[in-house]
Amino acid sequence: METTTNSAVISGKITSDFHFSHEVYGERFYNFDIECPRLSGVIDSLPVTISDRLLGGGFLIGDNIKIQGQIRSYNSYCEGKTKLILTLFAREIQLCNNSEDAINSIELNGFICKPCVYRTTPFGRQIADILLAVNRSYNKSDYIPCICWGRNAIFASSLDIGCNIKIEGMQSRIYQKKISETETIEKTAYEISVSKLDMIRETDIF
Q: CATH no. for residue 146?
């Protein structure tokens, strides 16, 4: 079922205005950003998509909120190029207290749809990149980039296309993109930083 293959719970602070995104059968959807601190003190900045039917005019910049929903992906076309965009699709939203512990929890159950890319950093850290296809209703799928570290990276590098895996984790990542010999710009990459990875076998389904 859809609710078991893609589940997200995020809490944090609203940091942007609500901007109109699109309309489906008279239901209007808006985008905004939320900041969620990690235990390390690093701040994840995540884009959110939400229906106007959940907003009710009661949420403002600076409010601390808790969202339950799913990670969704879509293709954005700009200057002849296609870019995969991730967003947190909200199904429930509520105000919460400053004192509440920050929550940044994603659980996905999907299928590896591209060969895993395994590498080591200049500091010797082991990394593996996974593109995970997560099915949802109406014969649609979300394609979600994931990054594994250490032992999980080694394990992921042994997995084949089509393997069914379940993962947990989440993060956004700030990086510098070089646009000329003398100029760089700061960009944010959204991906699942895998804290737990399990392979699902056919015998686990029954």
A: 2.40.50.140
How far apart are the C-alpha atoms of 69 and 52, rounded to whole Å?
15
Looking at the fold, whether 69 and 133 belong to one and the same domain comes out as no
Model's pTM, two decimal places?
A: 0.84
* Number of C-beta neighbours around residue 83 at 10 A: 10
**What string of pLDDT tens digits covers the 206 residues of the chain?**
444 799 999 999 999 999 999 999 999 999 999 988 776 677 888 899 999 999 987 899 999 999 999 999 988 776 777 888 889 999 999 998 764 566 788 999 999 999 999 999 888 899 999 999 999 888 889 999 999 999 999 999 999 999 999 999 877 666 666 677 778 877 777 788 899 999 987 645 43
